[in-house]
Amino acid sequence: MLINKEKKLRDIVRFITFIFAAISIVLLAGCDLIGGKESKPTVPGKIVFSKSDKSGDYLKIFKMNTDGSGVKKLVDFNGLSSFQPSWGPDGQQIVFTSAKMGIHGEPAIFLMNADGSNKRPMKVYPEYPAIAIGGDSPVLSPDGSRIAYEVCSNCGGAGGRNFEIMVYDFETDSITRVTNNHWPDRHPSWSPDGTKLAFSTELPYADTNIRGFKQDIYTISLEDGTLTRITNTGNASAANWSPDGRFIAYQTSVGGEQSYIYDLENNSTTQLLPGFRTSFGIQWSRKGSMIAVKASKNSDLANEVRYYNIEENNIEFVHLEQYTPQVIGTRFKWYYNENE
Q1: Which domains, ranges and CATH numbers included, belong to the chain?
Q2: pLDDT tens, 68-79?
């Protein structure tokens, strides 16, 4: 089965520049969030995202099916924004950040069930139980036992931007600092076996006059701290490991906003969807048979939410009616488990 799975992913990457399926979803102003004619795209799964609703004041968290049905508001903290939602490995939990219980402008990290119930902070300060441990870009580990996230060590002051990667362990109720640099280390992504993290960093440019303008993707071992450089082109971010651990997808703004897939076995890189502008990285289905990425043909469509789903033997274009664009936010997360 492992050989067949790797072959399938190789085939997906091999043909990725020639064939693709696409779905464009645009949320409309009107009653609640969804309006317009009903369409039934075939792309499966569900989406969680943050957006202000009709009042347009602060961010709330919603989920819906990929076809736009089943919209449900999950988080509304009454004037306090909530954002950066991310699915747990089995689609039953969501981790997110919120201004609720945060301090000094840093959002707190929360978890909840996929239906919005049982909202709770990841961890509170023992001496100040009304304040939760804060951070950005939280993501649950493949077994759901840990959360990786980023913390800005000096954002309380002017010009602060020194982000470090941290890991919280539910079993030991402890926090481990993974990186310890004086430059931004951001957007962690777990390897499927939970032994490494991929992240973007300004590490290779720390002693140059282009610091703050360039970053690359690295991986780090959680056992011994070994660093491995993945990209060397600059402006690479939004790393995302494939379910079998062979590929790392990432986003770059070099030559325009583009997405790429790096093969860890043979050290090769493949561009996804040449000629399209992509943003916020590639998202894998749980078994790796499909890929979704936010993309557009030109800058005028940059605010529309589009999916480009790659499937080896079932390539299909699905298009929803487009009206006045009111998107489902930017860093939305797609979840699809082929076995469900």
Answers
A1: 2-335 (2.120.10.30)
A2: 778 899 999 998
